[in-house]
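During the reporting period the student researcher (J.K.) took over the structure-prediction task from the postdoctoral fellow and processed the backlog of single-chain submissions. One of the processed entries is reproduced below for the supervisory committee.
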Amino acid sequence: MKQYLMIATCVAFGFSGCTSSMNLVSEPIEPTKTTIVQEQYEQPSAAKTEAYENTMRKIASGIQNDPNYQRIALDTPEKKAWFKSMTYRLWDRQMTRQQFMTEGLAKYPTHKYEFDFIINGFTFN
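J.K. obtained the following structure tokens:
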């Protein structure tokens, strides 16, 4: 009986797909016209806002040391609000890495490296 349980457990682990989710991000992503953009999201509490801003400061400090990073043109209040909303939703797991990449590339198709950099800057446990 123990052998059957052990075999079933091994088979279950085999189907669980023990692969890195980072492979999904590095694959080419083509923005499509059917991209669903989530306009509504959960507003952050004061504690979450502080934690999010600390994480973003860490990511921003890494940008300065990366010669390949090209600044994303967030030159209007609307673009800044969009970017902050999108990065917050990624940080708070209200959107997936794939959704973040797709939505980002829909607006800035030449900034795949930069969106990858931001995704990798978040620490997902």
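The committee noted the following: Residues 22-121 form one domain.
J.K. will present the remaining backlog at the next meeting.
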